[in-house]
Write a structure and sequence with these properties.
The protein is of the alpha+beta class and 797 residues long. It is 19% helix and 29% strand. The chain has five domains: 142 residues, Galactose-binding domain-like (Jelly Rolls); 296 residues, Alpha-Beta Barrel (TIM Barrel), CATH 3.20.20.80; 77 residues, no CATH class; 96 residues, Immunoglobulin-like; 116 residues, Sandwich (Jelly Rolls), CATH 2.60.120.260.
Length: 797
Amino acid sequence: MCKLSNGRGKIMKRMQMRKCHAILRMIGQMLLSGILFLAIANASAVTREAETAQRLGGAGTVTDRTGTTAVVLATPGQGVCFAGMPSAKRLAVFYASVNVGTITVVVEGQRSRKINIHSSGSATASFLHAIIELNLPSGASLTLLHEADDAPVAIARIIVGDDNLGLPPDIWNLPPLPIAAGPYPADWKGLAARYSVPAWWREAKFGAWAHWDPQSMPEKGDWYARRMYLEGDEVYKSHCERYGHPSEYGYKDICHEWKIDRWNPEQLMDLFVEMGARYFMAMGVHHDNFDCWDSAFQPWNSVRVGPKQDIVATWAKVARAKGLRFGIGFHNSPGRTWGQFMPVRYTSDQQGPKRGVPYDALQTIIDGKGKWWDGMDPVDFYGPKHGIEEPLKSPYANQFMWRVDDAITKYHPDVIYFDEHAGDSLVDLNVHMGLGFLAPQLVANYYNKSVAWNGGKMDVVINLKGVGGKYNSFQNSPELLPFVDRALVKSTEAHIEPEIMAEPFQTEVSSGAWHYSGPGHKTAYEVVSLLVENVCRNGTLLLNITQHGRGDLDPSMVQMCKDVGAWLKINGEAIYGSRPFEISGEDNARFTRANGNLYVILMNWGGGPVTLKALSSHGATLGKISKVELVGADVPLSFVQDERGLTITPGASLPVRTQITDKKLASEFHVLRITHDRRWINDDDPGTCAIGWQRKANLGSGDYNNDLTISDKIGSDMTCVFKSSAVAVVCPKEPGAGKIEVQVDGESRGIFDLSTDGPRLPQQRICAIKDLSPAFEHTITVINRAGTVAVDAFITE
């Protein structure tokens, strides 16, 4: 029997076997509507025609010009009921509508769920399919019902089965993305307790970015895909003059005509390597919603439209062949794309000859008949018509999750970047920005999958924005900030952190416009300055090298990249693998540490005497200086270190780097290497690891390098790998501190109390081990055995 829980009706009889002419009608209609079977429906799939099912609530039928008969559900209470269904896990509904909304699925009289629908372009003559997962028991009744909040729809047929039903994915009714199994949970505290930034990222410091997609094609700058639909905007005016009105030539046509015949990825990657980049970021998808890879959940992609190439796959192959780590950027977050870029496309001109004519985003699959996009649904690209409200609760939000998962599964990136805030408290262009509850799921899924493809090793990085600082997106949940900061590498656009950060961070900038808009870009001097300002504060610089729409670079851009690389070839030892000093710098000097040396990067130095106050003989970190050298040149330098600082005087003119064409960079940007007698392994140096511990910087409390690594979780440990005959653990002693156990190569060397009844005592040698073989690597482990403990450094001999 077919009935609803409210007793609206019963079925007339069990459905009879389908007839051959019904199969032919179905295939013909699918061809007319642009639906292509990937395969004939699998053997377990069963098709039922709506015209043979029981109609409820006065539902009528309509037959279109192809002979297809559909049941029309136009008012609340109307439905179509299919009795005696086989067991199935998946349902496909073939429908026609001119509306956007939902229909309701009822199984055995109980409401199951809603199905999202959108306009097929005709109430009867153009059919789309919606696919959902559901648990359908054998012999059950299945009803498609129009409730009060649903949209009118005509139902032609259904297919049920357990597999893909031989149909392309329905990207508007995808199930929730399951988080990949693994050690990383989908919550910030759990992620922070398990994640540690991999060594390769700490060493890299500099990345190249190809912020390049169809919006580059018109060469009119960033956000083209939005601005071309804003009447009166300069981009709108240019678009109308060059291509035509957006009701006739829309953004999808820009994508179709995107030519990349001057794109030479091998040559570009060679340039990025020469520039000194250690990782490369490809554009996966921008706010425009066009995927630059062979996307399983976005048919509007670079393999099917425009270049007909998998751009991301090509970038990945070439980058890795050149020895660079590879990343993918995702800018299609729900707030940006669903909330900002899509809604303006559903409007029209408010004045002029095209007043009231809808822009092309309101075209449907039926409008593509006989055109280049025949068979493609514009809704998949532009979204169904909607407002800006609740982007995270839209069907697009789940689609976004699946698309990210598709890309990371196919290309195994070492780093992924999101042009979106990790929190939920910011508003931009009247849209509530931030990934909010989606972000921990994204992070956990990526980390767990990466551990699987990296053989159990955590070796990837994820960049999200708005983690504290100028654009803090955690104003609604500030208690989460310390955990988020340790669960990923935060990134900020064009804003350098004002002080040394305890955790690594990234700043992303563009050499010119984010999308090409004409000649003009940063100089090599400006790029190196930005790089140094980031690195001295514990940061990394990601630099977009702005490409022409067709894929090539301006010659001056090429030279800029070469100049940056030439400077780094000389001075890279102060950048790569470095860590911050106790302060980031003073006046025109910036400080870094690497390989036991202190580096002073002097900007705008003409060669006269220079005094560095921070390097006095009474510093908490620096020992007695024994040597000062100019990196990459044999220029004699005399120096005096006293309580006032370190004064350096060149004994000859400073060199001009003739291999660098940027005159200011070639003559005024120099690096000093300083050797001193106070050697230690800092708590964040290469070889140290403290997963789940919290780092603090800029303490001003007399500790080595002005920072500490702290734990309040009993049982958590910090390790340091070293090669020496002796090692000492340095910690502060302070009132109320806890206890640590020290192990060397797994053997306990005792438990030590870090508390004191008197004032705080920095830089205390808590224990010293002197019976080690200098020929082998050793691992020292510090375990929190009670209370809150802090580790400052390790000293080896």
